[in-house]
Design goal:
This protein is of the alpha+beta class. It has helices spanning 2-25, 28-34, 97-105, 155-175, 179-190, 350-359, 366-370, 375-384, 390-399, 402-422; strands spanning 37-41, 46-51, 55-56, 62-67, 71-73, 76-79, 84-94, 113-124, 129-132, 135-139, 142-146, 197-198, 203-208, 212-216, 234-239, 243-244, 253-258, 262-263, 269-271, 276-285, 295-304, 315-327, 332-334, 340-342, 429-430, 435-444. Strand 5 (71-73) and strand 6 form a beta hairpin.
Length: 455
Amino acid sequence: MKFGWIHLALGLVVTLIPQADKAQQAPLTPQATSSAQHVILPAGVPLHIRVTRTAHLHIGASVVGVLTDPIYVRDQLVLAVGSPVQGKVIAYVPTDHLVREQALLNGDVTPLHDPVVDFTSVQVAATHVNVPMDTRALIRTTQMVRFTSTKKPSLIRRGINAAKTSIHDTVQSFTAPNKKDRAVRLLYSQLPYHPQRIWSGTEFVANLNAPLTVELPPAPPVVESESPSLNGKVVDARLMESLDSKTAKKGQPVVALVTAPLFDKDHKLILPEGAELDGVVSMSKPARSFGRNGKLRFAIRGVKNPIQTAEQHKETVYGTLSGVEGNSGQNLTVDAEGNVKANPDKGRFVAPVLLAATATAGADLDAGKAGGGGSPAAGNMAVASNGVGLAARVAAISAGSVDLAIGFGAYAFAKSVYFRFLTRGHEVTFPRDTQLEVTFTARSTGARATSAPGL
């Protein structure tokens, strides 16, 4: 009887120990599964990338960079600014014909090309994991331009500002990082034929060719705002179709997608990423001859908010452009009404004056005679032939011809005047995926109808 109780107790222990182990181990598998979430970026999403290391322009060359803008899905940050990316050059295409023509007129006969890059991986900041991706990237030299005062500075003030900018750029060339790159680029800009590089700082826009799945740590569910209002809010968005002052017509529809979620002061969601902004072109003026640049204005007249509440249905929302990503060569400005205008370059008046002054420097031969040698005259000829590159200086000095040097200088002066004052001005051009900043104004639908801001 005693042994029977012992056997029964041992049997219970042997039976319960595995059950206890299973009870302790069972929750681990679901926890491991729920410890991560998978977020999918759809095909077509643009990634803005800045190259961090100069690369050779040939097929197969490695290209490394970082993201310059965050990528969200609805309310969640998926790829942060500064996330490292890697890719390679898969092809190169001829550069824009206007750029090529300008280079030829400056004495550069290099067959210029732009690289086509496939960025193949990105590192997720939250997990430090490199995720493979399929993209196609092209160079886009842009900068964000925001609303500035419409008061125009005087001609003297503009000259002073241009001089300050020139001095600042000169100082930066000696003090800022990547001195070697800048020195090599300066040398290449003076040569009639030179190698081509993908310089550090070059910017690309890489569009996803296929959906990208990113694994992220779990995040608490977002709380949506109960009484959201867009009045006075600024949102980031991107154009879904290209738009330019040459072809755009008044009344043409404009569609943009919100790229970053909008939260209230309590971090409750007002407007998620992916919400659609519907707008219309209200004014378009193409560029004209004699350097008159194009103008363009469009406004947002509606928002398709997937979390819109009954409170928001009582608001009529308008949006005015307060910032836009523009090509640096267009020198864009945005005014208080959302007008976007392409402006002449900052050195429009200063550059021709300086070229005219240097073109006459070669006529002063007294310095050369007084010096008892030919080097001062050679220096004068080098200055006089400024504006056409190193080849012109070498040709003038080798020929020992002051007239040739002055001819090169006069050519540079005439070219500067022609392109700044006589040719057709710059168009306002927004490619697909151009980034926008839109400032909203909301009115109650019960109020008396008024025209939208900027229309």
